[in-house]
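#lab-general

N.A. 3:47 PM
ok so I finally got the sequence cleaned up, no stray characters, all 221 residues accounted for. can someone with queue access submit it? mine expired

B.Y. 3:52 PM
send it over

N.A. 3:53 PM
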Amino acid sequence: MKYGVIEQMRQDYPVPPMCRLLGVSVSGYYAWRKRSPSLRAQQEPRLEAEVLAAHQRTRESFGPERLQKHLDEHGVRLGVHRIKRLRKKLGLRCRQKRKFKATTNSKHDLPVAPNLLNQDFTATSPNQAWCGDITYIATDEGWLYLAGLKDLFSGELVGYAMSERMTKHLVMQALFRAVASQRPAPGLIHHTDRGSQYCAHAYQDLVGQFRMQASMSRRGN
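B.Y. 4:20 PM
back already:
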């Protein structure tokens, strides 16, 4: 509405020139300002609050159609188009679901170590057995991969590394950090899954240089 445009811009520009530009009278604009707001306008703040509350109740995961049904169940009847307008006005958007990222690729021809732990994840002293794995973290800029090594005796993380790529260099960096901080004695059991990063020749050479015993889970463990 032309009067609404003038109202929004009246703090920045004089009213008479804007009225002439939009082809309305100055007296008509001021008469419009004096009129009480319509019932629809009076309802706007309450409906904004209802839509915002519904958006939060549904964990920011419902689109306009599902949100309409949810509001109806709570006694608030609104059309889909009005919900869309209010969502846009409030800047509400559904959260994007993150797709699952696989961190283990066991389909390779690299050598696989025997399972020395055999599902027994107990340890009687520090630096007797470490367990390594890779996980991922969703950030606003994309996926961030975390490789870590945990001491099975204390349950503490003894070494870790993060990167935007899931490579053998990521797990090698985590192992370097763990050895540098703990200085384990020869014979430590180094247990991981059969992922290609851990089975890589360069990584297993490093495990051998640190005089550790390589151990890997069976498929499905």
